[in-house]
Amino acid sequence: METEKKTVLITGADAGLGLSLVKRFLQGGFAVFAGVHRSMDALNVLASEYGDALSLIPLNVADLESVRAAARLVGEQTNSLDIIINNAGIHLDNSKLPLEQLDLSDQHLQRTMDVNAFGPLRVVQQFLSLMEKGEMKLVLNISSEAGSIADSKRENQFVYCMSKAALNMQSKILHNYLKPRGFNVLVVHPGWMRTNMGGPSAAINSDESAAGIFDLAAREPKPGDPIYIDYRGEPLPW
Ligand SMILES: NC(=O)c1ccc[n+]([C@@H]2O[C@H](COP(=O)([O-])OP(=O)(O)OC[C@H]3O[C@@H](n4cnc5c(N)ncnc54)[C@H](OP(=O)(O)O)[C@@H]3O)[C@@H](O)[C@H]2O)c1
């Protein structure tokens, strides 16, 4: 791995938006650490094209030991990390069951919070010392408009929406905590994308979203800029 390049860690990189972000940041000249959950297939194709600039890192954000091991592995390959993109996410209550039919004893509920809300916090905690040595010091959490309380109109999908609202709160606390140390935190709605999660009828493809997110990451933030924004930089209400 070349360390003169800017460095980025992207979680959930084996499919969908994560994979598009890996491609975009490689095209943009970054050294990319791609967090792999279950499948290396698509990333192996990119690795053959980009060689040393892409490093595949086994990473399950729901498992603290896995996150620790990933931080150790990345630390063996670089002295610093510029950007973390917490992209990994799950949406298991897509069925839109009404409250009366929702199984609240279902382990899926806890798992959604564990991946979407607590996963990014585990990642930031374990990679913080590498980030402190990075120049850009940007934490970019992929959230959703579904996490906006002010804009909420849904009458179901409790768990996914609650997990993203919790991620939004986490991002604001991180912003408060890390700003004095030179960090920036962005919490980004990537748009409704044609991925496994978004389905075939969605509005945009994940490459379009990744291009917007790449531009957001490159932007010099000004004091007071909104931090909850969509992939084009438009602010969202908390
Ligand atoms: N698609 C949309 O329209 C939309 C809209 C708003 C927000 N978002 C958000 O955008 C992000 C990316 O979504 P997507 O549409 O690209 O979804 P996707 O196609 O389902 O991809 C999700 C990625 O997360 C990984 N992942 C799942 N559980 C993980 C875990 N425990 N540890 C590490 N990685 C894990 C998956 O790996 P495996 O497949 O190997 O499990 C996959 O690579 C998510 O945070 C999602 O909530 C998506």
What brief labels describe this structure?
7 strands; 7-stranded parallel β-sheet; single chain; binds NADP nicotinamide-adenine-dinucleotide phosphate; alpha/beta; 238 residues; 6 helices
Structural write-up:
With 238 residues, this protein is of the alpha/beta class. It is built from 6 helices and 7 strands; from the N terminus they run βαβαβαβαβαβαβ. The protein has helices spanning 16-27, 41-50, 64-77, 107-132, 158-178, 206-218; strands at 7-10, 31-36, 54-58, 83-86, 138-142, 184-189, 228-230. It has a 7-stranded parallel beta sheet with strand order 3-2-1-4-5-6-7, sandwiched between helices. β5 (138-142), α5 (158-178) and β6 form a beta-alpha-beta unit. It is globular. The protein starts with 6 loop residues before the first strand and ends in an 8-residue tail after the last strand. Residues 11-12, 14-18, 35, 37-39, 59-62, 87-90, 115, 142, 144, 189-190, 192-193, 195-198, 202, 206 line the site of NADP nicotinamide-adenine-dinucleotide phosphate (NAP).
